[in-house]
Amino acid sequence: MKYTIVFAIAASALLAGCGPQDKGGIPVKPRFTGPPYHLSLAAAPAKPSKSGLTIPPIKYTADPDAPPDSLATRAILVVRIDTASVKSKGTMTMDQIIMGAVDLPGTEGQLTADYMEATDQSVATLLEEYCVKGNVKMTAALTRSSLSSTAGDAEIDEKLITPWLPISVVFKNPHSGC
Predict the structure, then answer these.
(1) Of 128, 126, 135, which is closest to residue 174 (Cα–Cα)?
(2) Is residue 143, in this structure, part of any structural domain at all?
(3) Is residue 153 one of the residues assigned to a domain?
């Protein structure tokens, strides 16, 4: 009987110590906090194509410290135009292009020529609408492929997988009426 009472008290003390515990001590910072990819221009800017501009080929490289689960197999290119740097008729109310998803095979590579050509055409169409001419400063970044085609700044910033890459190109507007 004496051992039963001691055993019951010991079991109660053991189980009472199994509840929620204060996790005091030193906070642990995540090992990796930056974007999982980095962008760079693969070549010097080319002469403008028939659409009026050519964005240089864009290379992506995964950060070697990025955890594997943060790497993507598909991404969306977002191009933002610095409206303060352009000469246009009127105020540009639309200043970005969100492209469709593209495959990212491996940890480094280059966005395909067809994808970049479609990007050139989309940006050129936007610039044509506002009768832009001359030097155009823009930035480009990759986001997760789940980005909405009508995403605002908050959603874009939340889904970025690269920092913004500054790009400067010359736009030759093919419309003579501007």
Answers:
(1) 128
(2) yes
(3) yes
Extract the residue ranges of the chain whose pLDDT is less than 70.
1-32, 45-46, 48
Question: Is 24 part of a structural domain of the chain?
Answer: no
What's the confidence (pLDDT) of residue 26? Answer: 67
Give the per-residue pLDDT at 23.
56
Structure tokens at 169: 């190109």
Is residue 109 classed exposed, middle or buried when 0-12, 13-18 and 19+ CB atoms within 10 A define those classes? middle
What pLDDT was estimated at residue 86? Answer: 84
How many residues are present in the chain?
178
Domain count, the chain: 1
pLDDT at 18: 56
- Please name which of 91, 35, 29 lies closest in space to residue 66, comparing C-alpha atoms: 35
Question: What is the extent of the structural domain holding 139?
Answer: 36-171
For every residue of 61-130, DSSP letters joined together read EE-TTS-GGG--SEEEEEEEE-GGG-B-SS--S--EEEEEEEE--SSEEE--HHHHHHHHHHHHHHHHHT
In a domain, 97, yes or no: yes
Look at residue 52 and give its three-state secondary structure: coil
Do 138 and 78 touch, CB atoms closer than 8 A? no
